[in-house]
């Protein structure tokens, strides 16, 4: 059988929210890009297929990062003593302005992609900057690496520094050029409409972007209700809209095509109802929400209401690309939210958060983030032999120990859409 | 000049709470165990002294971990979906019981010490278990490694599983044996009186321990007001005492000798006043407090009141030995506390938390945690060349980037009390 191979190891994934499926010393049969089956005992018909035997290693789905700003990578770990609005002015906007220089972009973007690879992120939804050329470059670099990404040229035509602002016309024109050129250029790297957030986009720009989203059938990503000052500012800017979400909605940017909204900390009941009705994906970014003093998003309530949720690193408001770090931080803030909500919003288990970091975010990419039949084979091979283990642990416990105490050194191999991915080149 | 050497590099430390002292390409003159001076330009009289030139590396004081359970290291990263009391019963007590076996103790304790070294912790205040022999072994292993520690044989004579409980007589006898044998055995490793917490120690035991503390002039460490159920239980056990702290106080275990209390999340105003009056050191363990859903300690209020505070990893309720991880988590929860307190309790800056992780906790060890004259020379040499740096950064920014995005791979050398420490042996 051509194009078929088998991966053997201790397989663990979450088909269902909050429940691990475990195949100790099991087999994943991969045909082309996709999983053909997962087995405890290999069926007779697959006996002659090539087996890649990872021995006692753990095999998990690749991590999906549903929200990050590629152009902020140079600022990682810096300036995390501000709230959102001053942080944007003082640290973030000056850094993003550098991406007018394609050489700077190549250096930082390639380093970012190498590090996403390093930390086991196989799929990502990415904000670039307003700059057309470096955004195209970022897409080319992702494609070259083998990683999968939605990449957005950022749109900003108001309330932005003069060194980082576009005219409405240019913003729309450049966006459309990218859509025309990149919508079908790559299989694993796609454009996504990316208005920065309401404060930096006029209603005219938003409506134009809504039209482009429909015309080219491309998804949308933006920010929603992250910070008190931001929400207040949006209310001032749009007294005609009943809330923040409805600004996007009235521009056709809220779920008419698949849509990710990052943060959603301060959404009101009407907004939650709208998010549910329009099937908005929420990118939960706890590190960012802690670092910028934004608060704790009511993620348990979103999930109970059936709203899809994935996890995001949100660098560089988040300080770590590691999705295991994001899982741990998600667990921690969910524990604090449980206290804050007088024990109403139940804390998340490791299995629930693992689901959000794989299949939860993966849904935005299609059949991604699980080892069920027909899912694209995105996988990480975890060698935990260096971790502090002094007794026999179950596969679930070994995964938990990796998540809480391991790092990139424990990730031995990465697969995306059926292909083994080697270390991307840094320029 | 004999016994003198000079360390050269980018020196940064916090003499004052919240303020970095920086000596770019500076010199630290070390004589014997202690810092003799820090200079931007080396004075003439030191021109013939041997210089260890660390080039562009950053040199910082070693980290002080003011609270950790060595005997829980095997459980690191496991079972973090419980509150304190069930977590103790299901995960922690069964693990601690294994330390009756000296061979198991040697294996795990030596791995722990190697990893403390790896993460740049140069001083630690450590809980062992109730077992006398493995506690002595832990002290011997610390001494062999060159790391500095206070190590406590844990006392528990009630409300504990039958496989992990002592009689009052044995508990006191074994504790005194250790004090006699170890009080003067090592210079950098000392015993510390360690009643686990009020629920597991009768008043008779506590009073005996208070007497031993005075008799041998040794310090005390324990837990205080970590969790609601625990505080309620203490109130039931001691209706005669007006609060949790006063139980320790009435036994002579609350600041009559130098005393560390871990957590202090739920202390009341009377307890805060008593802590201030008795100069209690608070070990702030944010990872643990998040992982076990305990809450956020009001650390800003303690510091404003002048109560000494250090940081603790509190493994394995905390999941990481890395004190940089603890600094980041401390910043994050302080931001959330700022929101929770209606913006009264100001968030902590990196310089403030760096102080707590070095000089703040270091004070418990004497003149430790700074590069001021007369301080013991505990230092880490940080090579940040592997981090995502794409422009010229200040030394403060480089330190912040190391704290937020670096790890043990960036620590190139470690010094404790004037001596370079090599990787400890794992048994």
UniProtKB/TrEMBL annotation, chains A, B:
This is Guanine deaminase. One of its GO terms (cellular component) is cytosol. Belongs to the metallo-dependent hydrolases superfamily. ATZ/TRZ family. PANTHER family: GUANINE DEAMINASE. Keywords: Hydrolase, Metal-binding, Zinc. GO terms for biological process: guanine catabolic process. InterPro entries: Amidohydro-rel (IPR006680), Guanine_deaminase (IPR014311), Metal-dep_hydrolase_composite (IPR011059), Metal_Hydrolase (IPR032466), Metallo-dep_hydrolases (IPR051607). It holds the Pfam family Amidohydro_1. It catalyses: guanine + H2O + H(+) = xanthine + NH4(+). SUPFAM superfamilies: Composite domain of metallo-dependent hydrolases, Metallo-dependent hydrolases. Catalyzes the hydrolytic deamination of guanine, producing xanthine and ammonia. Residues 58-419 form the Amidohydrolase-related domain. It is an enzyme of class 3 (hydrolase). GO terms for molecular function: guanine deaminase activity; zinc ion binding. It comes from Clostridium coskatii. Its cofactor is Zn(2+). Binds 1 zinc ion per subunit. NCBIfam families: guan_deamin.
């Amino acid at each position: 059988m051509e194009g078929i191979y088998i991966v053997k190891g201790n397989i663990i994934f979450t088909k269902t929210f909050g429940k691990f499926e475990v195949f100790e010393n099991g087999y994943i049969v991969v045909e082309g890009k996709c999983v053909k089956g997962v087995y405890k005992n290999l069926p007779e018909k697959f006996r002659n297929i090539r087996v890649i035997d990872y021995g006692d290693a753990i095999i998990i789905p690749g991590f999906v990062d549903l929200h990050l700003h590629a152009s902020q990578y140079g600022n990682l770990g810096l300036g995390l003593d501000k709230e959102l609005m001053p942080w944007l002015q003082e640290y973030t906007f000056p850094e993003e302005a550098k991406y007018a220089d394609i050489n700077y972009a190549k250096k930082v973007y390639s380093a970012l992609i190498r590090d996403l690879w390093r930390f086991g992120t196989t799929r990502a939804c990415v904000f670039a900057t307003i700059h057309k050329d470096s955004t195209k470059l970022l897409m080319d670099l992702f494609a070259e690496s083998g990683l999968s990404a939605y990449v957005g040229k950022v749109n900003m035509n108001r309330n932005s520094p003069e060194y980082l602002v576009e005219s409405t016309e240019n913003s729309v024109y450049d966006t459309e050029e990218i859509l025309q050129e990149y919508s079908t250029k790559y299989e694993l790297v796609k454009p996504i409409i990316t208005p920065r957030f309401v404060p930096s986009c006029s209603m005219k720009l938003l409506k134009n972007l809504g039209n482009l989203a429909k015309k080219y059938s491309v998804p949308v990503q933006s920010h929603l209700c992250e910070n008190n000052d931001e929400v207040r500012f949006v209310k001032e800017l749009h007294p005609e809209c009943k809330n923040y979400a409805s600004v996007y909605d009235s521009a056709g940017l809220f779920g008419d095509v698949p849509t990710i909204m990052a943060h959603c900390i301060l959404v009101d009941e009407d907004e939650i109802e709208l998010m549910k009705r329009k099937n908005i994906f929420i990118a939960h970014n706890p590190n960012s929400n802690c670092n910028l003093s934004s608060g704790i998003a009511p993620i348990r309530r979103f999930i109970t209401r059936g709203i899809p949720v994935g996890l995001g690193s949100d660098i560089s408001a988040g300080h770590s690309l590691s999705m295991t770090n994001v899982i741990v931080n998600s667990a921690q803030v969910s524990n604090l939210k449980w206290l804050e909500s007088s024990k109403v919003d139940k804390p998340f288990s490791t299995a629930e958060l693992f689901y959000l970091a794989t299949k939860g975010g993966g849904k935005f990419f299609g059949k991604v983030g699980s080892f069920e039949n027909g899912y694209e084979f995105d996988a990480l091979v975890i060698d935990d032999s260096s971790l502090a283990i002094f007794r026999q642990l179950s596969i679930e416990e070994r995964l938990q120990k990796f998540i809480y105490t391991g790092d990139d050194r424990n990730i031995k191999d990465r697969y995306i859409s059926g292909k083994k991915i080697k270390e991307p080149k840094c320029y």
